[in-house]
Specification:
single chain, 291 residues, alpha/beta, Rossmann fold, two-stranded antiparallel ribbon, 10 helices, 10 strands, 35% helix
Protein backbone atom coordinates (compact mmCIF):
# COMPACT_ATOMS: atom_id res chain seq x y z
CA UNK A 1 0.00 0.00 0.00
CA UNK A 2 1.27 3.47 -0.89
CA UNK A 3 1.43 5.67 2.19
CA UNK A 4 0.98 9.38 1.63
CA UNK A 5 3.34 11.92 3.13
CA UNK A 6 2.00 15.15 4.61
CA UNK A 7 4.18 18.02 3.42
CA UNK A 8 4.11 21.72 4.28
CA UNK A 9 5.35 24.69 2.27
CA UNK A 10 5.10 28.46 2.78
CA UNK A 11 2.94 30.54 0.46
CA UNK A 12 4.33 33.79 -0.93
CA UNK A 13 2.98 35.60 2.12
CA UNK A 14 4.38 33.00 4.51
CA UNK A 15 1.11 31.19 5.25
CA UNK A 16 1.56 27.45 5.81
CA UNK A 17 0.20 25.29 2.98
CA UNK A 18 -0.34 21.54 3.31
CA UNK A 19 -0.49 18.77 0.74
CA UNK A 20 -0.65 15.00 0.63
CA UNK A 21 1.99 13.35 -1.54
CA UNK A 22 1.21 9.81 -2.71
CA UNK A 23 4.46 8.66 -4.31
CA UNK A 24 4.80 5.05 -5.48
CA UNK A 25 8.26 3.49 -5.34
CA UNK A 26 8.32 3.44 -9.15
CA UNK A 27 6.12 5.56 -11.40
CA UNK A 28 7.70 4.86 -14.77
CA UNK A 29 8.41 8.53 -15.32
CA UNK A 30 4.71 9.32 -15.63
CA UNK A 31 3.53 12.86 -15.08
CA UNK A 32 2.15 13.44 -11.57
CA UNK A 33 -1.52 14.17 -11.05
CA UNK A 34 -2.19 17.28 -8.96
CA UNK A 35 -5.65 17.29 -7.36
CA UNK A 36 -7.42 20.55 -6.51
CA UNK A 37 -10.55 20.28 -4.33
CA UNK A 38 -13.78 22.25 -4.14
CA UNK A 39 -14.51 25.50 -2.32
CA UNK A 40 -14.72 24.23 1.25
CA UNK A 41 -13.10 20.84 0.71
CA UNK A 42 -9.59 19.53 1.19
CA UNK A 43 -7.01 16.97 0.12
CA UNK A 44 -8.86 14.11 1.83
CA UNK A 45 -11.52 14.25 -0.91
CA UNK A 46 -9.03 12.62 -3.25
CA UNK A 47 -7.74 9.88 -0.95
CA UNK A 48 -9.62 6.96 -2.61
CA UNK A 49 -8.69 8.19 -6.10
CA UNK A 50 -5.06 8.73 -5.10
CA UNK A 51 -4.78 5.18 -3.78
CA UNK A 52 -6.35 3.75 -6.95
CA UNK A 53 -3.82 5.55 -9.12
CA UNK A 54 -0.69 5.35 -6.97
CA UNK A 55 -1.25 1.62 -6.38
CA UNK A 56 -2.17 0.77 -9.97
CA UNK A 57 -0.07 -2.36 -10.68
CA UNK A 58 0.22 -1.55 -14.40
CA UNK A 59 0.60 2.24 -14.37
CA UNK A 60 1.39 3.60 -10.89
CA UNK A 61 1.33 7.39 -10.77
CA UNK A 62 2.34 9.97 -8.19
CA UNK A 63 -0.66 11.92 -6.88
CA UNK A 64 -0.48 15.22 -5.02
CA UNK A 65 -3.60 16.62 -3.30
CA UNK A 66 -3.67 20.13 -1.86
CA UNK A 67 -5.32 21.86 1.06
CA UNK A 68 -5.94 25.47 0.02
CA UNK A 69 -5.34 28.17 2.61
CA UNK A 70 -8.02 28.01 5.28
CA UNK A 71 -8.82 24.36 4.61
CA UNK A 72 -7.62 21.11 6.14
CA UNK A 73 -4.15 21.36 7.63
CA UNK A 74 -3.21 24.59 5.85
CA UNK A 75 -3.07 27.79 7.85
CA UNK A 76 -6.06 30.09 8.31
CA UNK A 77 -5.67 33.51 6.71
CA UNK A 78 -6.10 36.58 8.92
CA UNK A 79 -7.60 38.33 5.88
CA UNK A 80 -10.58 36.35 4.54
CA UNK A 81 -10.48 38.44 1.35
CA UNK A 82 -7.52 36.25 0.38
CA UNK A 83 -9.86 33.29 0.02
CA UNK A 84 -10.20 33.87 -3.70
CA UNK A 85 -9.33 32.00 -6.88
CA UNK A 86 -6.44 34.28 -7.88
CA UNK A 87 -4.62 33.92 -4.55
CA UNK A 88 -5.29 30.19 -4.45
CA UNK A 89 -3.90 29.82 -7.98
CA UNK A 90 -0.70 31.55 -6.86
CA UNK A 91 -0.54 29.17 -3.90
CA UNK A 92 -0.81 26.16 -6.20
CA UNK A 93 1.97 27.49 -8.43
CA UNK A 94 4.13 28.21 -5.37
CA UNK A 95 3.71 24.64 -4.15
CA UNK A 96 4.51 23.20 -7.59
CA UNK A 97 7.70 25.28 -7.72
CA UNK A 98 8.68 24.08 -4.23
CA UNK A 99 8.18 20.48 -5.38
CA UNK A 100 10.22 21.07 -8.52
CA UNK A 101 7.24 20.22 -10.75
CA UNK A 102 7.23 22.16 -14.01
CA UNK A 103 4.60 20.10 -15.83
CA UNK A 104 1.75 17.96 -14.51
CA UNK A 105 -1.71 16.61 -15.06
CA UNK A 106 -4.47 18.14 -12.97
CA UNK A 107 -7.85 17.20 -11.57
CA UNK A 108 -9.94 20.17 -10.47
CA UNK A 109 -13.23 19.68 -8.66
CA UNK A 110 -15.53 22.74 -8.73
CA UNK A 111 -13.34 25.52 -7.23
CA UNK A 112 -10.29 23.55 -8.36
CA UNK A 113 -11.49 23.73 -11.95
CA UNK A 114 -11.90 27.50 -11.70
CA UNK A 115 -8.31 27.71 -10.47
CA UNK A 116 -7.24 25.76 -13.57
CA UNK A 117 -8.98 28.32 -15.79
CA UNK A 118 -6.88 31.04 -14.16
CA UNK A 119 -3.73 28.92 -14.36
CA UNK A 120 -4.24 28.47 -18.10
CA UNK A 121 -4.10 32.25 -18.43
CA UNK A 122 -1.06 32.87 -16.23
CA UNK A 123 1.12 29.75 -16.52
CA UNK A 124 -0.24 27.41 -19.20
CA UNK A 125 2.97 25.48 -19.79
CA UNK A 126 2.65 23.59 -16.51
CA UNK A 127 -0.68 22.02 -17.61
CA UNK A 128 -0.22 18.83 -19.64
CA UNK A 129 -3.91 18.00 -19.41
CA UNK A 130 -6.76 18.40 -16.95
CA UNK A 131 -9.88 16.78 -15.58
CA UNK A 132 -12.61 19.31 -14.83
CA UNK A 133 -14.99 17.77 -12.32
CA UNK A 134 -18.47 19.31 -12.54
CA UNK A 135 -17.21 22.74 -13.42
CA UNK A 136 -16.74 24.92 -16.45
CA UNK A 137 -16.48 28.56 -17.44
CA UNK A 138 -20.13 29.18 -16.61
CA UNK A 139 -21.98 28.12 -13.46
CA UNK A 140 -25.66 28.18 -12.58
CA UNK A 141 -26.98 30.59 -9.95
CA UNK A 142 -29.30 27.92 -8.54
CA UNK A 143 -26.38 25.62 -7.75
CA UNK A 144 -24.31 28.40 -6.21
CA UNK A 145 -27.24 29.41 -4.00
CA UNK A 146 -27.45 25.83 -2.75
CA UNK A 147 -23.75 25.87 -1.88
CA UNK A 148 -24.16 29.22 -0.11
CA UNK A 149 -27.07 27.94 1.95
CA UNK A 150 -25.37 24.65 2.74
CA UNK A 151 -22.20 26.35 3.97
CA UNK A 152 -24.26 28.73 6.12
CA UNK A 153 -25.61 25.79 8.12
CA UNK A 154 -23.18 25.29 10.98
CA UNK A 155 -23.19 21.67 12.10
CA UNK A 156 -21.28 19.68 14.68
CA UNK A 157 -22.35 16.02 14.45
CA UNK A 158 -21.78 13.78 17.43
CA UNK A 159 -19.83 11.17 15.43
CA UNK A 160 -18.56 10.51 11.93
CA UNK A 161 -21.34 7.96 11.53
CA UNK A 162 -23.86 10.69 12.37
CA UNK A 163 -22.08 13.03 9.95
CA UNK A 164 -22.41 10.43 7.17
CA UNK A 165 -26.12 10.03 7.91
CA UNK A 166 -26.58 13.80 7.89
CA UNK A 167 -24.83 14.14 4.53
CA UNK A 168 -26.93 11.36 3.07
CA UNK A 169 -30.15 12.93 4.35
CA UNK A 170 -29.20 16.27 2.83
CA UNK A 171 -27.58 15.22 -0.45
CA UNK A 172 -28.93 11.70 -0.97
CA UNK A 173 -31.54 12.66 -3.62
CA UNK A 174 -28.77 14.05 -5.83
CA UNK A 175 -26.48 11.05 -5.25
CA UNK A 176 -28.47 7.79 -5.50
CA UNK A 177 -25.36 6.08 -6.88
CA UNK A 178 -23.44 6.35 -3.60
CA UNK A 179 -23.05 3.50 -1.12
CA UNK A 180 -22.92 3.65 2.66
CA UNK A 181 -19.13 3.47 2.40
CA UNK A 182 -19.10 6.45 0.04
CA UNK A 183 -21.08 8.56 2.52
CA UNK A 184 -18.71 7.58 5.33
CA UNK A 185 -15.69 8.49 3.17
CA UNK A 186 -17.32 11.83 2.39
CA UNK A 187 -17.95 12.53 6.07
CA UNK A 188 -14.35 11.78 6.96
CA UNK A 189 -13.18 14.09 4.16
CA UNK A 190 -15.44 17.00 5.09
CA UNK A 191 -15.26 16.83 8.88
CA UNK A 192 -12.39 16.68 11.35
CA UNK A 193 -12.15 16.33 15.12
CA UNK A 194 -11.03 19.61 16.65
CA UNK A 195 -10.89 20.19 20.43
CA UNK A 196 -13.14 17.20 21.06
CA UNK A 197 -15.79 18.30 18.53
CA UNK A 198 -16.47 17.12 15.00
CA UNK A 199 -16.58 20.18 12.75
CA UNK A 200 -16.38 21.07 9.08
CA UNK A 201 -12.68 21.33 8.28
CA UNK A 202 -12.41 24.88 6.95
CA UNK A 203 -12.17 28.44 8.22
CA UNK A 204 -15.79 29.63 8.79
CA UNK A 205 -14.86 33.01 7.30
CA UNK A 206 -14.43 31.27 3.96
CA UNK A 207 -18.18 31.61 3.47
CA UNK A 208 -18.15 35.42 3.56
CA UNK A 209 -17.49 35.88 -0.14
CA UNK A 210 -20.16 33.38 -1.15
CA UNK A 211 -22.64 35.07 1.16
CA UNK A 212 -21.83 38.40 -0.50
CA UNK A 213 -22.67 37.26 -4.06
CA UNK A 214 -25.36 39.47 -5.61
CA UNK A 215 -27.72 37.02 -7.29
CA UNK A 216 -29.73 39.83 -8.84
CA UNK A 217 -26.89 40.20 -11.37
CA UNK A 218 -25.59 37.65 -13.89
CA UNK A 219 -22.71 35.58 -12.59
CA UNK A 220 -19.31 36.22 -14.16
CA UNK A 221 -18.09 33.70 -16.75
CA UNK A 222 -14.64 32.47 -17.80
CA UNK A 223 -15.08 31.63 -21.48
CA UNK A 224 -11.90 33.47 -22.61
CA UNK A 225 -9.88 31.56 -20.00
CA UNK A 226 -11.57 28.31 -21.04
CA UNK A 227 -10.46 28.92 -24.63
CA UNK A 228 -6.87 28.89 -23.35
CA UNK A 229 -7.44 25.85 -21.13
CA UNK A 230 -9.05 23.98 -24.04
CA UNK A 231 -5.76 24.16 -25.89
CA UNK A 232 -4.84 21.31 -23.52
CA UNK A 233 -6.42 17.83 -23.48
CA UNK A 234 -9.46 17.97 -21.20
CA UNK A 235 -11.77 15.42 -19.65
CA UNK A 236 -14.91 17.20 -18.46
CA UNK A 237 -17.11 15.30 -16.00
CA UNK A 238 -20.65 16.42 -15.22
CA UNK A 239 -22.79 14.98 -12.46
CA UNK A 240 -26.04 13.80 -14.01
CA UNK A 241 -27.99 15.61 -11.28
CA UNK A 242 -25.74 18.65 -10.92
CA UNK A 243 -27.48 21.98 -10.52
CA UNK A 244 -24.24 23.98 -10.64
CA UNK A 245 -22.97 22.80 -14.03
CA UNK A 246 -25.55 22.59 -16.82
CA UNK A 247 -25.88 20.21 -19.75
CA UNK A 248 -25.83 23.22 -22.07
CA UNK A 249 -22.48 24.44 -20.73
CA UNK A 250 -21.03 20.94 -21.00
CA UNK A 251 -22.19 20.68 -24.61
CA UNK A 252 -20.74 24.06 -25.49
CA UNK A 253 -17.41 23.09 -23.95
CA UNK A 254 -17.35 19.77 -25.79
CA UNK A 255 -18.06 21.51 -29.09
CA UNK A 256 -15.18 23.95 -28.57
CA UNK A 257 -12.31 21.67 -29.55
CA UNK A 258 -11.49 18.06 -30.37
CA UNK A 259 -9.24 18.02 -27.30
CA UNK A 260 -12.29 18.20 -25.01
CA UNK A 261 -13.92 14.92 -23.99
CA UNK A 262 -17.20 15.12 -22.05
CA UNK A 263 -18.76 12.42 -19.87
CA UNK A 264 -21.70 12.28 -17.46
CA UNK A 265 -21.55 10.63 -14.03
CA UNK A 266 -24.85 8.74 -13.59
CA UNK A 267 -26.62 9.04 -10.26
CA UNK A 268 -24.40 11.83 -8.96
CA UNK A 269 -24.85 15.55 -8.43
CA UNK A 270 -22.31 18.24 -7.56
CA UNK A 271 -19.62 17.12 -7.46
CA UNK A 272 -19.12 13.50 -8.58
CA UNK A 273 -16.69 11.13 -6.89
CA UNK A 274 -13.96 10.57 -9.47
CA UNK A 275 -13.05 7.21 -7.95
CA UNK A 276 -16.59 5.88 -8.40
CA UNK A 277 -16.84 2.83 -10.63
CA UNK A 278 -18.81 4.67 -13.30
CA UNK A 279 -16.08 7.30 -13.77
CA UNK A 280 -12.75 5.77 -12.76
CA UNK A 281 -12.18 3.85 -16.05
CA UNK A 282 -12.52 7.11 -18.02
CA UNK A 283 -10.15 8.85 -15.61
CA UNK A 284 -7.58 6.07 -15.93
CA UNK A 285 -7.80 6.08 -19.73
CA UNK A 286 -7.46 9.85 -19.94
CA UNK A 287 -4.39 9.89 -17.70
CA UNK A 288 -2.78 6.93 -19.50
CA UNK A 289 -3.04 8.74 -22.83
CA UNK A 290 -1.34 11.83 -21.42
CA UNK A 291 1.80 10.14 -20.12
Amino acid sequence: MVEFESRFFPAEDGLKLHLRDYAPAEDGGRLPLVCLPGLSRNARDFHPLALCLAEDPAQPRRVIALDYRGRGLSGRDDNPANYNVAVECRDVLTVLAALGITRALFAGTSRGGLILHVMAAVQPDCIAGAILNDIGPEIEAEGLREIRDYLARASSPTSFAAAAEGLKALHGPAFPALSAGDWRDMAEAIYAERDGRIVADFDPRLTEQVQAVDFSKPLATLWPQFALLAEKPLLVVRGERSRLFSRQTLARMAAHAASVRAITAPGQGHAPLLHHGDILPSVRAFLADRG
